[in-house]
Specification:
alpha/beta, GMP Synthetase, Chain A, domain 3, Helicase, Ruva Protein, domain 3, 5-stranded parallel sheet, 3-stranded mixed sheet, 12 strands
Length: 462
């Protein structure tokens, strides 16, 4: 019996179906308006749902590129209001129009535009992500300051490298820089993932000359999420030469990533060296004061957009700000859930209401990464992180290193080879030995068992 169903443009197995796609489509219509919804979003179908991401179906490559370049952030924000654990969306073409896949004409607002599936059409900047609506706090003030300075003095800080965790505002700053400079400069803004897409496409079409010319002619080159070039040697080679060419001609380069350049995994040392040779600024997790500012600003935006009054008192705002421990993106998701509940039930919410609405979010285990484990373990044993990751084998360094490897295996989804690479490119057999050693010691040694439990508590509290 076929377990798959197709109903109301939804493709998903019965066992996995949890989101109501019709309900989400209704929210799209309300958020984007009839014109955009009928032209673009109505044709999106749900193919498969996972815990942290969705696979959505679109009819053509053109549809995919248009939606990704203009509406993806808002679409993700909408679906997160229905399921907070979602953090990305992937698209799959399900009805490719082979007779008209190269270009499609659109007649909208009396403007006819031919849009070709080529390099020239993926240079998008989100006009909503500008300096005026970037909310400043202690966690991001340095990154904001230097982003503005780059706009005043091109090539003075080159490259500017902005690093920080997911959802903290890196992409916002990159967009803001691009918007500020685009009137008087040839600005190229692209994600590392999209850069890779065009690179592969150009190789297949034997069109690398145009690829090189296109990306090396910009006077301002902005690339987002550079960590995605990890492990892709040929792509890194091309990026390296593109980077050097732009630097030689005096172009300004702005780069973002989820970590410090020297901590990029499986990236050539010469690339890491060049990235670290510029100005490296980080964005940290927002403090409570910044989160309060963000909540109030978002409430103001919702009220202006939907022409409705939202009554959240300072106690509720403070509660949300204090209890949200992750990033700005998830903070907005929490706020959207609270606002939606108040709207449906037509009531002014109390802290107890919020506790009930958000109990499944605030009680969940915090996300734990290998980087986080390494930092907590090195601090716990009062040794330097560089020492713990070094090749030295003395007991004061080897044992904490084994503890960190053990916790990385137990508390993350990383594979043994991946964990080994994060520990100064050690072999996976070293990780296996560490896991066995610490497992045995924690069963036999009360002190080791106590250390492991205390470190776990620290990791889960942060």
């Amino acid at each position: 019996m076929d377990k798959n169903i197709k109903k109301h443009n939804v493709y998903i197995s019965e066992e996995e179906k949890t989101l109501n796609w019709d309900e989400i489509q209704t929210s799209f219509k309300k958020t984007f308006g009839n014109e955009i919804y009928n032209s673009w979003l109505q044709k999106i179908s749900l193919i498969k749902e996972f815990n942290d991401y969705l696979i959505l179906g679109v009819p053509t490559r053109f549809f995919r590129d248009w939606i990704v370049s203009r509406y993806l952030d808002k679409i993700l924000e909408q679906v997160k209001s229905f399921k907070l654990s979602l953090n990305r969306i992937e698209f799959k073409i399900i009805e490719e129009n082979k007779h008209n896949s190269e270009y499609i004409k659109i007649d909208q607002l009396n403007k006819v535009t031919e849009i070709k599936d080529s390099l020239l059409n993926y240079n998008r900047l989100n006009t909503n992500l500008n300096f005026d609506n970037f909310i400043e706090g202690k966690s991001n003030d340095i990154a904001l300051s230097y982003s503005k300075k780059v706009c005043e003095h091109i090539s003075r800080y080159n490259p500017l490298y902005i690093c920080g965790g997911v959802g903290l505002g890196k992409t916002h700053l990159l967009n803001a820089i691009g918007l500020e400079l685009q009137n008087e400069n040839n600005v190229m803004y692209i994600s590392a993932e999209r850069f890779m897409y065009h690179f592969i496409k150009s190789i297949k079409k034997n069109d690398m000359v145009n690829f090189k010319d296109f990306f090396r002619k910009s006077s301002v080159f902005i690339i987002d999420d550079i960590q995605f070039i990890s492990g892709k040697e040929s792509l890194q080679e091309e990026f390296f030469h593109t980077f050097n060419s732009l630097m030689d001609k005096g172009s300004q380069i702005i780069i973002s990533a989820d970590r410090d350049p020297l901590k990029l995994d499986r990236v050539q040392e010469r690339i890491k060296s060049r990235l670290a040779g510029g100005l490296v600024v980080s964005i940290d997790t927002p403090d409570v004061e910044l989160k309060r500012k963000i909540i109030k600003k978002k409430i103001e935006e919702i009220q202006n957009q939907f022409k409705e009054n939202i009554n959240l008192n300072d106690e509720v705002i403070n509660f949300i700000a204090n209890e949200s421990k992750t990033n700005i993106r998830e903070l907005i998701g929490v706020l959207n859930r609270v606002v939606a509940f108040g709207r449906v039930h037509n009531k002014d919410l109390t802290i107890n209401d919020c506790k009930n609405i958000l109990k499944d979010i605030f009680n969940q285990i915090r996300v734990i990464t290998v980087d986080k484990i390494q930092n907590v373990v090195s601090n716990y044993f009062n040794i330097g992180l560089s020492e713990m990751l070094s090749q030295r084998r003395s007991r004061p360094l080897a044992r904490p290193r084994q503890v960190a490897m053990y916790l990385a295996k137990k508390l993350t989804t990383r594979s043994l080879p991946e964990i080994g690479r994060r520990f100064a490119n050690r072999d996976h057999t070293t990780v296996i030995h560490a896991v066995k050693t610490i497992t045995r010691l924690s069963e036999q040694d009360d002190e080791m068992k106590k250390n492991i439990n205390q470190i776990k508590s620290i990791l889960l509290e942060q």
